[in-house]
Amino acid sequence: MKKPLGLYIHIPFCAAKCPYCGFYSKAPAAGEHAEKTAEIRRNYVRRIIADIKAAGEKYGEGRAVDTVYIGGGTPSILEPELIGEILETARKSFSVASDAEISMEVNPGTVTWEKLRTYRRAGVNRLSIGCQSLDDKVLKNLGRIHTAAQFRETFSLAREAGFKNISCDLMFSVPGCTMETWRNTVRELTEMAPEHISFYSLQIEEGTVFYDRYKRGDFDETPDEADRAMYHEAISMLKDAGYSQYEISSAAREGFQCRHNIKYWTLAEYIGIGDSASSYIDGKRITNPPFYEYHENTAADDMIEYVFTGLRMNAGIGLDDFRKRFGCGLFEAFPEGKRELAPFVREKDVLIEGGRLKITEKGFDISNKIMAIFV
Known about the structure:
Elements: E1 3-11, H1 34-59, E2 63-72, H2 80-93, E3 95-106, H3 113-122, E4 126-132, H4 136-142, H5 148-160, E5 166-172, H6 179-192, E6 196-201, H7 209-216, H8 224-240, E7 244-247, E8 250-252, H9 259-265, E9 270-273, E10 278-281, E11 284-287, E12 293-296, H10 299-310, E13 317-318, H11 319-326, H12 330-333, H13 337-346, E14 350-353, E15 356-359, H14 367-371
Parallel strand pairs: 1-2, 1-9, 2-3, 3-4, 4-5, 5-6
Antiparallel strand pairs: 6-8, 7-8, 10-11, 11-12, 13-15, 14-15
């Protein structure tokens, strides 16, 4: 049986750089002609097509790609034919499972029904739409270039184009986002009934416009208490609407958990194609230029990463699974772990039961402190 493999393809281009975004992305230079911008994008796609072919020759033997994730940036600003070429190259270079989850990030206002149908015909079967908020004031404060109405239109077009697996991202703790506006956004989105919803607290990342404002002292931060209240309110509302939280910031209807992201949280293998994309393959962690990194994991590295990322998931870590994978028990590998976890177990931040170690909803508020025990 072939080993499963994830394929991540990074499209760094954006119409404009969001002031909170710390990811590697590129917006057109001021005054840059549209034809030049289009040619830059086409040249980039030619390069990643060559990289996909090379990766297939190196890693394709004995592996089957069961998830593909086209992320960014804003992949949906590419001409749809280029997305088709990328996926066709992936199929020719790798054994791609017939039921592979093929996701693509889409920003509101960057697609038409025709573009979405072309993506669908090319094999994309899951969309991740960057909603962030359904309040125009909050969207403006975030520096988003779309409106709530444009999100609603994009979502409707995606359904009309035949997409039956749609994920939407939301962001809370944004300046101007009150509990009322947050509840209204979550309520409206759940009524629209996407299959998957991700919900993130705004993080101030170094190198962003928001970070510069924060350093100058003119950024209106949300207090921790309000941030946590919004987080737990979202979980409660999502549960009432029929979604199950399966990871710190992710909830889905039954059967629609993001299979690709689960690879990141379970130490499964994946290859990253494109500028700044990361891979975990053959026990090696590799980040592509311009931020090139290379690290061969030791057994201890793998154990730490397996626990650290696995505890992000509501199901936590299977103690038998850990032993089968690493040849020793979790608390043999981390002999001080049980003692250091004891206070968190007493406070019901952590559960050790049914052969599993997991963080509770209450414990997610201090998850980094709990995970640090295993680092």
